[in-house]
Amino acid sequence: MEEVNVTVKINGKERSAKVEPRMLLTHFIRDGLSLTGTHIGCDTSQCGSCSVMVDGHVVKSCTLLAVQVDGSEIITVEGLGTVENLHPMQKAFWEEHGLQCGYCTPGVMMAAIGLLQENPEPSDEEIREGLEGVICRCTGYQFIVSAVKHAAKLMAAENQVVGEGR
Ligand code: FES
Ligand code: FES
């Protein structure tokens, strides 16, 4: 199959790769651009592990083709923070034990950031509703809710929602 060039601004840097037109955005990010923080849990839009931000909106990256995002701005979990300088969402997950095996965590954090963009002070119920599209196989949901609540406070204090695109 003839390959096409796809160029995106991802985590603040312009990157390009040649892909088959049928390649999913998830595979483009992981295999084409070697950003493996975005996980694949199902490939069928069920689990949310592959969630990333495209042009300011959180999407499950297995629901889009790479060619559909040509020219877009993308933020993946790698664009949130660094070990030395964690994003408030990462800090909150660390402090509130919001992860166990961590497989779902990148997608959950991206979905949670999308939720807080729309509702900066969600109730427990609104957090559960907002994250219903992401599945944690370790079933640590109460800790995830606590982490997102804590993140909301940290983000409000820092006036920060999305990553710096590092
Ligand atoms: S891998 Fe995309 S929703 Fe599960
Ligand atoms: S922490 Fe293990 S799948 Fe969610």
Automatic annotation (TrEMBL):
Keyword list, A-Z: 2Fe-2S, Iron, Iron-sulfur, Metal-binding, Oxidoreductase
Residue intervals of the 2Fe-2S ferredoxin-type domain: 4-80
One Gene Ontology term of the molecular function aspect: oxidoreductase activity
Keyword Iron-sulfur attached: yes
Pathway membership, UniProt: Alkaloid degradation; nicotine degradation
InterPro entries listed in its UniProt record: 2Fe-2S-bd, 2Fe-2S-bd_dom_sf, 2Fe-2S_ferredoxin-like_sf, 2Fe-2S_ferredoxin-type, Beta-grasp_dom_sf, Diverse_Oxidoreductases
Family matches, as CDD domains: fer2
UniProt-listed Pfam families: Fer2, Fer2_2
PANTHER family found in the cross-reference section: OXIDOREDUCTASE WITH IRON-SULFUR SUBUNIT (PTHR44379:SF5)
Name by which UniProt lists this protein: Carbon monoxide dehydrogenase
Organism of derivation: Oceanobacillus zhaokaii
